[in-house]
Amino acid sequence: MKIAVVGATGLVGSEMLKVLAERNFPVTELIPVASEKSKGKEIEFKGKKYKVVTPDEAIDLKPQIALFSAGGGTSTAYAPQFAAAGITVIDNSSAWRMDPTKKLVVPEVNAHVLASDDKIIANPNCSTIQMVVVLKPLHEKYKIKRVVVSTYQSVTGTGVKAVQQLNDERAGKDGEKAYPYQIDLNVIPQIDVFQDNGYTKEEMKMIKETNKIMGDDNIRVTATTVRIPVMGGHSESVNIEFENDFDLNEVRDLLAKQTGVIVVDDPANLKYPMPKDAHGKDEVFVGRIRRDESQEKTLNLWIVADNLRKGAATNAVQIAEYLVKQGLA
Ligand code: 2RA
């Protein structure tokens, strides 16, 4: 297949190239796409060099699938043009996620909603993806009433500039700032911009996207999203209230059986998920599984995943794999 990666020079775009190669996605020709200023730059993929082209040039090259990760502006402007040319777009920006005519997909949760006429498919927000993969089997079994989530998010979620800010601060150097405050030796309780209701856009994404992906608007969600000086992945403390009671061993079994989830939950041996271990992995890790003793039918757990992998690139490539397997692209 001819595959375009739009935003190929960015953090998520480079991860998409790695994941396509690692998973042996059937790429016959790669089309790396970026803005005019990166045009002509060479990108290596599976030992071959490919020249970066602009989005307009990429449309003329007619790939079957285009993985977009170049920001909301590029997606809003170009995804419809790619789609009109018959190219299936899998878009990692937030531009189309809440559009009722577009599917928002985490393959382990709702791949079944995809159809051959879906030409722009939205890849959810990183912190939402890792949470819903864990919520899915629990909702099926015990029916979730309410979720309270607090996140501890890696600077890689912001992009290259934020990684540079953290590295500069650690080296005692001045440089460009991605955040309004120092991030090293600090915690910033703001991810993305504030909304009128006092929540940030990231928090509202976690709330709305969870309902859409789970296909259930009755699940009540509240979120506090926080940036921490970490690089390997996002962590989440999640409190889940169910309609029905559960057995802790059964919860562990359900999660262990869930595709894409690895249970790391052995407090006696100090084993629990951490971003430094999740880094570079495609799975979602869950641990610290315990009852909330302050309220019945309520569970606490801790979820960690590499936000550039399952939270972005891996999920997008898995959608592409599903489309190919089902003959939908
Ligand atoms: C973040 N959720 O971590 C974003 C990236 N999509 O900032």
Automatic annotation (TrEMBL):
Q: Which residues bind NADP(+)?
A: T9, G10, L11, V12, K37, S38, N307
Is Cell wall biogenesis/degradation tagged as a keyword?
Answer: no
> Which residues are involved in binding phosphate?
R97
The alphabetized list of GO BP terms reads: 'de novo' L-methionine biosynthetic process; diaminopimelate biosynthetic process; isoleucine biosynthetic process; lysine biosynthetic process via diaminopimelate; threonine biosynthetic process
What residues sit in the active site? C126, H234
A GO molecular-function annotation:
NADP binding
InterPro entries attached to this UniProt entry: Asp_semialdehyde_DH, Asp_semialdehyde_DH_beta, NAD(P)-bd_dom_sf, Semialdehyde_DH_NAD-bd, Semialdhyde_DH_dimer_dom
The keyword Membrane is assigned to this record: no
UniProt: substrate binding residues: Q153, R227
**Segments forming domain Semialdehyde dehydrogenase NAD-binding:** 2-117
Q: Which top-level group of life is the source organism from?
A: Bacteria
EC number from the UniProt entry: 1.2.1.11
Q: Which CDD domains match?
A: ASADH_C_bac_euk_like, VcASADH2_like_N
Q: Which reaction does it catalyse?
A: L-aspartate 4-semialdehyde + phosphate + NADP(+) = 4-phospho-L-aspartate + NADPH + H(+)
Q: In which pathway does it act?
A: Amino-acid biosynthesis; L-lysine biosynthesis via DAP pathway; (S)-tetrahydrodipicolinate from L-aspartate: step 2/4; Amino-acid biosynthesis; L-threonine biosynthesis; L-threonine from L-aspartate: step 2/5; Amino-acid biosynthesis; L-methionine biosynthesis via de novo pathway; L-homoserine from L-aspartate: step 2/3
What UniProt keywords apply to this chain's record, in alphabetical order?
Amino-acid biosynthesis, Diaminopimelate biosynthesis, Lysine biosynthesis, Methionine biosynthesis, NADP, Oxidoreductase, Threonine biosynthesis
Which family does the similarity line name?
Answer: Belongs to the aspartate-semialdehyde dehydrogenase family.
Known role: Catalyzes the NADPH-dependent formation of L-aspartate-semialdehyde (L-ASA) by the reductive dephosphorylation of L-aspartyl-4-phosphate.
Q: How does it assemble?
A: Homodimer.
Identification of the protein by name = Aspartate-semialdehyde dehydrogenase
Tell me the organism.
Sphingobacterium sp. (strain 21)
Q: What is the lineage of its organism?
A: Bacteria, Pseudomonadati, Bacteroidota, Sphingobacteriia, Sphingobacteriales
